[in-house]
Design goal:
The protein is an alpha/beta fold and 359 residues long. Helix content is 40%, strand content 19%. A 9-stranded mixed β-sheet has the order 1-3-2-4-9-5-8-6-7, sandwiched between helices. Helix 4 (96-105) crosses helix 13. 52% of the residues are buried.
């Protein structure tokens, strides 16, 4: 199996990246010599992460820490990796599997904190005769290759006694493409596709609307990855970004409805806001009250999940080398950021007036 980022022809990858990119300015003036620009790659259809990305753009969290943000949106992790490899972003919001894929290809990146916990799922039309994972024998399953939902689905198939390569037909389908097929087929049938694997909020949305039924749900760890070259060019910027990230997380946690509306508007997703609540339920930080409540450290369980993702990529020919994810985790920068925030825990982010916010 070829490496994840080589699945699409070069020209097709370039077109997809161009079409999916959404460049939004943040709050500080580009002419201010005291500010440092940081280019953030985020994922347009991925909840919780999306609210954080929008909050960074629509509050003064970055400006409070001497930064100006440029934001690029992508459909999922694989095209985001392409942008990273092309030098188009400085920091990535990404899940464990695409993170491992990037680090296996290019060691000029480091994990600086945990982004969130989130759900990935395997689902079928609500009225499908498929009741359990074992019923997928001989069936076609669509999923975004390179996403964490791919790994978790293959694990679920094997746990049910199926050999994914022999007993099922696995095809690539972008999460945005899934939405169109589900809307067209509804609760009865999705045409030639019997089941799909994906992530919230798409999965939660169709579950809530009664169009999809979950066969298997997993929780995965996602991370924030920073370019080491960027960090070397801008000493202190990594720490400042983490301070802004934590401030934005706190704003989101204490303004969930507002941040959710920002995300839905930017992503052009027509979801009930309750879907975002369901997607965020597995992330403890959304229940934070004070700035000090935000905890983005990686636990031993998180690190184990990251390693599982790296091993999956290596075992399935989806990475050029086997890596130890712990070697790519920087804890010192986060510790420094938390120490500085502790000296002034009341320095919280505030929203940018609507006339200055991204449109």
């Amino acid at each position: 199996m070829p490496a994840i980022d080589e699945r699409l022809p070069r020209q097709g990858r370039r077109v997809r990246r161009t079409l999916s990119s959404l460049i939004l300015g943040a709050c500080a003036s580009a002419e201010d010599p005291t500010t440092t620009t940081i280019r953030v790659g985020w994922q347009l259809s991925w909840a919780t992460q999306g609210q954080i990305a929008q909050t960074l753009q629509r509050t003064n969290a970055l400006a409070l820490n001497g930064l100006r943000g440029e934001f690029k949106g992508f459909s999922y992790g694989a095209p985001l990796n392409e942008a990273a490899l092309a030098g188009e972003v400085d920091v990535l919001f990404t899940a464990d599997q695409p993170a491992a894929a990037l680090l296996a290809r290019d060691d000029r990146w480091t994990i600086i904190c945990r982004l969130m916990h989130s759900r990935v799922a395997l689902y079928v039309p609500r009225n499908s005769p498929i009741r359990v994972v074992a019923d997928l024998r001989g069936r076609t399953i669509a999923m975004p290759f390179g996403a964490a939902s791919q790994r978790e689905t293959l694990k679920a198939l094997r746990a049910a006694g199926l050999d994914p390569s022999r007993d099922t037909r696995i095809v690539h389908m972008d999460i945005s493409e899934q939405a169109g097929l589900i809307e067209a087929g509804g609760a009865e049938s999705w045409g030639a596709v019997d089941a799909m694997a994906g992530f919230d909020p798409t999965a939660a949305n169709f579950e809530q609307r009664g169009l999809a039924r979950m066969l298997h749900v997993s929780e995965v760890t996602s991370v924030v990855i920073l370019s080491t070259e960027y960090a070397a060019r801008h000493p202190g910027a990594a720490k400042d970004f983490l301070k802004a990230f934590i401030a934005a997380y706190h704003y989101y946690a204490t303004h969930e409805d507002e941040a959710g509306a920002w995300f839905l508007s930017a992503s052009r997703l027509r979801f009930d806001p309750a879907v975002l609540d369901a997607a965020a339920a597995v992330e403890a930080n959304v229940r934070a009250v004070t700035l000090r409540d935000i905890d983005v450290r990686l636990t031993p369980r998180d690190v184990a999940r990251l390693q599982e993702a790296a091993d999956f990529n290596a075992d399935n020919g989806m990475a050029r080398r086997r890596i130890a994810m712990r070697d790519f985790i920087d804890v010192k920068t986060l510790e420094a950021a938390v120490r500085e925030l502790a000296t002034d825990p009341t320095r919280v982010a505030t929203a940018i007036p609507a006339r200055r916010a991204p449109q």
